[in-house]
Design a protein that fits this description.
The complex is a heterodimer. Chain A is mainly beta. Helices cover about 0% and strands about 50% of the residues of chain A.
Chain lengths: ~110, ~110
């Protein structure tokens, strides 16, 4: 069965500090992996995606993520967090073999303190 | 290029009523997926339409139904509304089952 786990429900970091949000997945087919960000009352904005190739992917707003097949992980990182990064972050998995139907994690809420 | 749009933005209904939500896919896209996002949760896949045919369905009862039109816009219909149907409903479009682009969502409140 397909599933995505985001083990950290809530994370608080200081502005300027580094950030890592964890994502683990279980998926039978070759996965496509995504990170989305959602501000309160808003839709989902794509931060970055992994389809194939280089396992370190760069996204918007200075975010990057690394795909580790052996660990079934796709963790999101940012070297220096800005106050505007405070939001909800969702990891998602999909695959063309299953019609690219996305399975989302339950999200990690990020608070940034000055 | 116009992105994914959804209407209405907000909606309030009472239990037992029926609701129709609408989604206009991004220009050039032929696939629409619908997701339900309850408060504090991640989006849950409802179903997907590919070239006007249903192409997969999540774990939602039959009172959730959908439609895709020849211009690839889509509707989500929910009958016999229940309190637990209160959620943000997200629509996403793509070309041929590739990367999905999400709309801003419709916030449905069931009283």
């Amino acid at each position: 069965a397909q599933s995505v786990t985001q083990p950290d429900i809530h994370i608080t970091v200081s502005e300027g500090a580094s950030l890592e949000l964890r994502c683990n997945y279980s998926y039978g087919a070759t996965p496509y992996l995504f990170w989305y960000v959602q501000s309160p009352g808003q839709g989902l904005q794509l931060l970055l995606k992994y389809f194939s190739g280089d396992t370190l992917v760069q996204g918007i707003k200075g975010f990057e993520a690394e795909f580790k097949r052996s660990q079934s992980s796709f963790n999101l990182r940012k070297p220096s967090v800005h106050w505007s990064d405070a939001a909800e972050y969702f990891c998602a998995v999909g695959a063309k073999e299953t019609g690219n139907q996305f399975y989302f994690g339950t999200g990690t809420s990020l608070t940034v303190i000055p | 290029e116009t992105g994914v749009t959804q209407s209405p933005t907000h909606l309030i209904k009472t239990r037992g009523q029926q609701v129709t939500l609408r989604c206009s896919s991004q220009s050039g896209h032929n696939t629409v997926s619908w997701y339900q996002q309850a408060l504090g949760q991640g989006p849950q896949f409802i179903f997907q339409y590919y070239r006007e045919e249903e192409n997969g369905r999540g774990n939602f009862p039959p009172r959730f139904s959908g439609l895709q039109f020849p211009n690839y816009s889509s509707e989500l219909n929910v009958n016999a509304l229940e309190l637990d149907d209160s959620a943000l409903y997200l629509c996403a479009s793509s070309w041929d089952l590739n990367e999905q682009f999400f709309g801003p969502g419709t916030r449905l409140t069931v009283l």
